[in-house]
Amino acid sequence: MRFKLEKRAEPSRFMLYATPIGSVLVTMIVGAIIFSVIGYDGIGAVYQTFIAPIATAYKWQDIAIKASPLILIGVGLAVGNRAAIWNIGAEGQYVVGALAGTGIGLLTQNATGLWILPSMLVAGLIGGAVWGAIPALLRTRFNVNETLSSLMMTYVAIHLMNYLVTGAWKDPSGFSFPETPLVTADQTLPSWDLFQIVHQAFGWPISGHFRVHLGILLTLVIVVVMAVLMARSVFGFQVRVVGSAPNAARHGGFSQKQTIWLVFLLSGGLAGLAGIFEVTGPFGQMSLGFPQNYGFTAIIVAFLGRLNPIGVVIAGIVLAITYVGGDMAQSVLLLPNASKGIFQAMMLFFLLASDILIRYRVRLVSATPAPAAQPARSPA
Amino acid sequence: MNVDFLIAVIITVVGASTPILFAALGELVTEKAGVLNLGVEGMMLVGAIAAFATVDITGNPWLAVVVAAAAGSAVSMIFAVLTLSLSANQVATGLALTIFGTGLSTLVGKGFTGRIIKTFDTVFPQALAANPVGRVLFSYSPLVYFSFIMVALVAWFLNRTRAGLILRAVGENDLSAHSIGYSVIGVRYAAIAFGGAMAGIGGATFPLVLTPLWAEGLTGGRGWIAIALVVFAGWRPVWLLGGAYFFGLLSTFELYAKASGASWTSILPSEGWAALPYIATIVVLAVISASKRGGGGAPACLGRSFVPSA
User: For chain B, what are the domain ranges?
Assistant: First the structure.
């Protein structure tokens, strides 16, 4: 018996959507085996990382908090990857967006008013877009590979953040900890407890909390906008054509340079927005530990979500579960926190490996030796 | 500036340049075969932890180099199977490899935090390094001399041997190479394995030559600089030498800025010096890419999947 690949007449839509789910399942199985082999409780590790966060209702709000930046960044990166434009510097755009918004926050520490929070959010959006504009400019003007330049800019962003957080922007009343002052009430995203709202509205006996902040809700709104934009607008069409058929795009009058600019401004801006949501929401300030690798994990989210806005939401939740589950596995099983990174990378490996199933069909061929009558046919 | 200081600078720069040189050399061969592997950073980290663990357990730095090369090669095979046998996207798979290598090295490294390893003695007898010239020439770890040998070997292999010619042919025109009977996939597997081994040794340079301590993510983006360096060198091995030493020099500025205080930090804060190698990489890439009109010297099939058909 051996396997043989047969090219499909048309890419399989079933496989397109089944393979991400399959990748997660295979990761759980293989992960359990690997972690058992290297001396941990493998099944426990998989249970804690993938299942326990869902099974524990009070962890849902943590999942939502982690999923929100992953989805927001991932939905932007998905657009770029569709156009075969590789922005791998979202982590830097996330940090600079957060810095830009924090800058406004520092200027308005003593001010009050409803205008403060929106101006911080807009600054975050612009900060991320500006940082994304640098690789776009380098690519369109000097033909610099955007993969390398966007990543280099991430290191520059983190050094810039370290400089500000340990220097000029350090909280004077913070006992010389390297962190900016906490955001004020007018700089904080409003939040609501969904469990309590349901409890009060319908009288259901739900205990516990499921607090969501405005950033999470705005993220969902942006996803819907992006889904419509990608499916129904000229921009969405332009991105797909530039990515899948660059020559056709040129003949059709779509400028590749314009696409590069739009992709970087959009994905950078959304990453920056994700950054300032973290400052005005869960973090409440910036510190040396602010970068959480969301920008890199969002690359996995974009692929696992099949570069589709709705898929990105599901993938973002799955990856957020592994973030929360990684912490749970650490406290319950003493599993090192880095193991969640291995699970995340494995999901992407299995997904990329299974891509071939979309375009090819696997056939089992009987390997009984060919009859002597036709020995000359070589398989290649 | 006195002689001792100058010598100290040279020795530091050589140390800082060596890992970049190894990794870039491996990536150059991989790219010459037409494969863009963005997993260099991940393979370096795997090599680094493999080397650290080997020395910590066996005390033998020579064995550590071999294990690091094997480990780098082994993880590069994940990339090879995905991109060559399953024709997955090379950019995405390389990124996945970097994420994987980062996670794996952190996981394994947990057990080695806080430990100090004993590494190589210098190759040459101390007597040779008695005078300043001798110190500049003879006071390094064997890995440094090995990196020079590898540059020469790779240059010779690519330009003077039949196998090197085949490898370049596969990178320039995979269809032609296939049609005259060379195994495109086989050559690329070998090139990726070599790239992985060199990245592994490059990673091993961190614990074996630079700091005998384990730290998470200790390569700090050097793998990405190595990839940029291949473009910088125009895919010519000997040019890598100059490029690696230039970036090695830039990356040591942060140390001097921290050590010497005001005279450096009045020009630029230490974070600014730390960011300099990354900014310089971008600037250099911009100058090179703009002047050559589209990355001159890049293998024609770089980054493209090859699906052999009957």
Answer: 3-223
Chain A residues close to B110, C-beta within 8 Å: 336, 338
Q: Least CB-CB distance to A352: which of B89, B220, B295?
A: B89
Report CB contact under 8 Å: A300, B285: no
Is some CB atom of chain A closer than 8 A to the CB atom of B215?
no
Q: How close B140 gets to chain A, by Cα (Å)?
A: 30
At A178, list the tokens: 């390297």
Q: Which of A276, A285, A289 is nearest to A170 (CA)?
A: A285
Instruction: Report the residue count for chain A.
Output: 380
Which tokens belong to A135? 């690789």
Tell me which amino acid residue B11 is.
I
Nearest CA in chain B to A302: B92
Tell me if residue B182 falls in helix, strand or coil.
coil
The string of DSSP codes covering B251-307 is HHHHHHHHHHTHHHHTTS-HHHHHHHHHHHHHHHHHHHHHHHTS-TT--TTTT----
Which tokens sit at A305? 């979500």
Q: How far is B299 from chain A (nearest CA, A)?
A: 15
B269: which chain A residues are within 8 Å (Cβ-Cβ)? 163, 167
A2-7 and A191-193: which strand pairing?
A: unpaired
Q: Which residues of A touch B232 (CB under 8 A)?
A: none
pTM: 0.89
Q: Which residues of B touch A167 (CB under 8 A)?
A: 269
Residues of chain B neighbouring A138 (CB-CB closer than 8 A): 282, 285-286
| ipTM computed for the complex | 0.89
Q: Minimal Cα distance from A7: which residue of B?
A: B309
* CB-based contact B100 A345, cutoff 8 Å: yes
- 10-residue mean pLDDT profile of chain B (310 residues): values are 80 92 97 95 97 94 96 97 92 91 91 85 75 80 94 96 94 91 94 98 94 88 91 90 91 80 78 90 86 68 76
Question: Under CATH, which architecture does the A2-365 domain have?
Answer: Orthogonal Bundle (1.10)
Residues facing A361 on adjacent strands: A6
- How would you label B91-118 residue by residue, b for 16+ Cβ within 10 Å and e otherwise? bbbbbbbbbbbbbbbbbbbbebeeeebe
CA distance A147 to A298: 15
**Helix, strand, coil abundance in chain A, percent, nearest 5:** 70, 5, 25
The CA distances from residue A356 to A13, A350, A373, in Å, are: 13, 11, 34
Encode chain A (380 residues) as per-residue pLDDT tens digits: 567 778 888 888 888 889 999 999 999 999 999 989 888 889 999 999 999 999 988 899 999 999 999 999 999 999 999 998 999 999 999 999 999 999 999 999 999 999 999 999 999 999 999 999 999 999 999 988 898 899 999 999 999 999 999 988 998 887 878 999 999 999 999 999 888 888 888 888 877 889 899 999 999 999 999 999 999 998 889 888 888 888 888 888 888 899 999 999 999 999 999 999 999 999 999 999 999 889 999 999 999 999 999 999 999 999 999 999 999 999 998 888 888 889 999 999 999 999 888 888 877 776 555 444 444 444 43
- Provide the β-strand partners of residue A363: A4
